[in-house]
Amino acid sequence: MDKGKQEKTGKKYQIIRLIHKVDGKILPLFLISAVIETFLPYINIGMPALILDALSKKQGKETIIFYIIITVLLNAFILLVTSILNYFKGMRSYHFSNKYSWMKTEKIFTMDYPYLEDSDFINLRQNIRYNDEDTGAFTGMPGRIAGIFQACLSIGIAFVSFVTLFVQIIFSIREKEGQATPWMFVLLILFICFSIWTVRKLQKKAEKSIPEMTEKVVSDNRASMYLAEEVVHNYSLGKDVRVYEIDKLVIDEMEKMDQSYTEYCRKSNKVTTLPGAISSASSAIISGIVFSVVGIYALSGMIGVGSVVFTVGVVEQFISSISNLIFRMGDFSISCARLDAVLKLFHLPKLKRDENNVVKKAGQYEIEFRNVSFQYPKTDRWALKNVSLKIRNGEHIAVVGTNGSGKTTLIKLLCRLYDPTEGEILLNGVDIRSFSEKEYLELLSIVFQDFKLFAFTLGENVAAAESYEKEKAREALIKVGFEDRLKRLEKGLETSLYRDFEEEGVEVSGGEAQKIAIARALYRNASMIILDEPTAALDPIAEQEIYEKFHTLVEGKTAVYISHRLSSCRFCDTILVIHEGKLVQKGSHDDLVRQTEGKYYELWNAQAQYYMK
Ligand code: ADP
Q1: From the CA atom positions of the chain, what is the Rg in Å?
Q2: Cα(595) to centroid of ligand 1, in Å?
Q3: Per-residue pLDDT tens for 439-492?
Q4: What are the strands of the beta sheet with 382-391, ordered from one edge?
Q5: Between the N and C ends of the chain, which has fewer C-beta atoms within 10 Å?
Q6: Reduced to 3 states, what is the DSSP secondary structure of residue 396?
């Protein structure tokens, strides 16, 4: 087998394995149903043929009535069984599609973070949306596979009858010279082969061109998809859209996307429907030829009335099953080609680490950055260069620097979202990569600059869980200064945030949201708390409140406080100054502000102008 073919077969096998992994019972159910459905047409071909033969041979009334009753009973039985199976198939398909969506979501939730910021991964997500979610390529797979199985079974049954008839007629022709010749059959077989060849060729073209077309439309429409998903569906952006009349930009972009997507659908529909159309047309021609041939032989008396009905029925089944098989095989291959991106998603490897070390619970933790340098993937700029620092147990550290200096990057490395490009980060002298990720992350509580709250209840947001300790959640909210607001909420912790699901949901202000996010970090009760620009959205009074409470908030914990507002860092034990990815100064506020040549002095004075006014 050549490599391309091997790859394709491998892909199909992987898809079948994935179906089995999503729901091991769905394929057997669809296959059983296919077997039963295959017999129905043959009963309705065979039984009327028996009845007609009995009539033409003038057999007794009882025989005929017996055949009729058997026909009705068999039909009723099969229809009943298929209806029951259809019910189960429907239920199973629903479960199958939900479980599949969940598996994709779970994969995305648990994959290494760098993928999420990688543009290739964003394209992959888009590709999955166009090729799989919009077309049902994967969820329709059990039906497609069962269809292929049913067509093969039907061909098998019809083939035996068809060959018997063929041989019988060939012998009859030899006996009756001057009648129609076997050439008709030879032509027929040639025509069938030609049709199969044409349809397969077109299908192969479709299998090849669909992924290429999608790749193109996905990369053309990335900006538009961002607008469609982030701007149109995110109602909290409604204000900006109105004030800045962003709607014009969105509409123009959407129109552009609509044009290219329509063009994509036109081309992809053309290549996918053409094989089906040709296959149907060929079937019609083949049926015409077969009926004419059988008609000629019936007129010449070579076959009886019952046999004519049976033969015509079987031949019709044979042809429709062949055309069905070709169509379904093509449909299956095209759908497999559409699932390239899904397979890629499930195969994205996890970074291999030797995570054998155990994080000691309730210990003293010291973090050390040793000569750490970092470049974001696919960039050649150093976001951090040769950073060495220590964060001692219980120490309150501030990291300051202008925007883009590398503060958040430092935190991303500390949280193991990325691994250092050079150097290492140590926890109590051991590389953090060697600890189990889950155990290591349990040590940390983080409020990111772009934190997210969810449209769940306030309590669930604080606890990041459905069931939680109410008193502990309340305490965390009180600690961050949310007490007055909490008292004003009729449903207290049970209040739903935002109006995505609940009409009575509460819209919290940016500052309130930030307080809730800090409360969430406190609820977690981790040993180290990291606050990335935690007061950016707070009003001056709330900001002051957080500063004053900072030591109480993080009492007994190691705290890393990141800000470009220097006034908010004065109270930390040590201040680290980052500039253009390098650690340029380190010390207490009083020490640093005295070093008039230093970056801290420059930043402090630049900002102090505003505080002094
Ligand atoms: P700060 O938090 O100090 O504002 P960051 O750590 O966010 O700065 O960014 C440091 C540098 O890294 C900046 O030049 C920024 O543009 C770059 N950067 C941040 N995130 C990414 C990313 N995902 N891919 C590439 N470059 C990035």
Answers
A1: 36
A2: 28
A3: 888 888 888 877 888 888 888 888 888 888 889 999 999 988 888 888 888 888
A4: 382-391, 367-375, 422-427, 430-431
A5: C
A6: strand
- Residue 248 to residue 233: CA distance in whole angstroms: 16
Q: State if residue 495 touches ligand 1 by the CB under 6 angstroms criterion.
A: no
Assessment of whether the complete model's pTM goes beyond 0.85: no
Atom from ligand 1 closest to the CA of residue 449: 2
Query: How deeply is 284 buried, as exposed, middle or buried, from its count of CB atoms within 10 A (0-12, 13-18, 19+)?
Result: exposed
438-467: string of b/e by CB count within 10 Å (b at 16+)?
A: eebeebbbbbbbebebeebbbbbbbbeeee
Does 375 contact ligand 1 (Cβ within 6 A)? no
Rounded distance between C-alpha atoms, residue 228 and residue 174, angstroms = 71
Amino acid identity for residue 143 in this structure: G
Q: Which amino acid would we find at residue 333?
A: S
The dihedral sign for the CA sequence 328, 331, 337, 338: negative
Q: Is 534 in the pocket of ligand 1 (CB under 6 A)?
A: no
Distance between CA 540 and CA 542 in Å, rounded? 6
Question: Is the Cβ–Cβ distance between 367 and 388 less than 8 Å?
Answer: no
Of 367, 452, 382, the residue nearest 414 (C-alpha) = 367
> If you measure from the C-alpha of residue 258 to the centroid of ligand 1, how many angstroms do you get, rounded to a whole number?
33
Whether 115 is in the pocket of ligand 1, judged by its Cβ within 6 Å, is no
Model pLDDT for residues 135-175, shown as the tens digit of each residue = 899 999 999 999 999 999 988 888 777 677 667 666 665 56
Residue 445 token pair: 């509580």
Cβ atoms of residues 306 and 50 within 8 Å: yes
Instruction: Look at residues 516, 512, 521, 535 and name the one whose alpha carbon lies nearest to residue 449.
Output: 535
**Structure-token pair, residue 129:** 């949306």
How many CB atoms neighbour CB 519 within 10 A? 27
Q: Kind of pairing, strands 574-579 and 396-400?
A: parallel
Q: What's the CA-to-centroid distance between 562 and ligand 1, angstroms?
A: 14
